Amino acid sequence: MRVGSSPMRFDILTLFPGMFESYLRESILKRAQDGGKIEIGIWNIRDYSTDKHHTTDDSPFGGGAGMVLKPEPIADALEAVRRNTGAGRTILLSPRGCLFTQEIARRLASNSHLILLCGRYEGVDERVSTSLVDEEISIGDYVLSGGELAALVVLESVARLLPGVLGAADGPLHDSFTEGLLEHPQYTRPREFGGHSVPDVLLDGDHKKIEAWRRQQSLIATARTRPDLLPHAHLTDEDVAFLREQGYEVLPRKKG
User: Fold this and answer.
1) Are 228 and 208 in contact (CB under 8 A)?
2) What positions carry a catalytic annotation?
3) Checking DSSP bridges between strand 234-235 and strand 89-99, what pairing results, if any?
4) Which of 102, 121, 203, 250 is least buried, going by the fewest C-beta atoms within 10 A?
5) pTM of the model
6) No. of H helices and E strands in the chain?
7) What is the rounded distance in angstroms from the CA atom of residue 177 to the CA atom of residue 197?
8) Residues 161-179 pLDDT 10s
9) What phi and psi, each to the nearest 5 degrees, are found at residue 21?
């Protein structure tokens, strides 16, 4: 669990540390590091191989295409991380992991230290999965060449939930998926663009009407493009009645 105002620590184990350099020096993650909200360490798994060629992969037992990451360099790299920065919840980014969601991001944000292990090639030796990590996470039902992009997704999604990382204190509360719904439409200047106007309700200063409109638009957006979210969303009776008025049927749900 996170304690006090200490920065949250992220350690990333990868074969390609250079993939992180530019992204971590920009935008929210840079500000979060500069402001002492998070700390990030990048560890090259190749540094923990024991032969002169820095070998980290080998062909799979039983045959088959591709290569598999060897367990020894990963185990030694994890040991080095834990020895230098302490124990942390260790996550393998893997296409067979559980699907990453905002709910999982909130759960991970309660930790003080996450260790993210990036898979590569055909995957990692099964003994890594069964004895060296706490869980496996996938960012979607598709295949990437490695876990580096997935690690960045998890890192940013978790980091932006931490106090002080975003400019607005309540910023994360209004994100898509926070209540199981997609976010409402957003508008800025100019008021007229391409023959379309900003909705009048956003211009009259009545904040209750604006919040009601945003809630309704969020419901419609979710029902139209992600109806699978509705049974798990926190809906009121008024929400359900509104959706039915719009022609959307709602399956059994959580009550708000």
Assistant:
1) no
2) 95, 122, 160, 175
3) unpaired
4) 203
5) 0.88
6) 8, 11
7) 27
8) 999 999 765 555 555 666 8
9) -60, -50
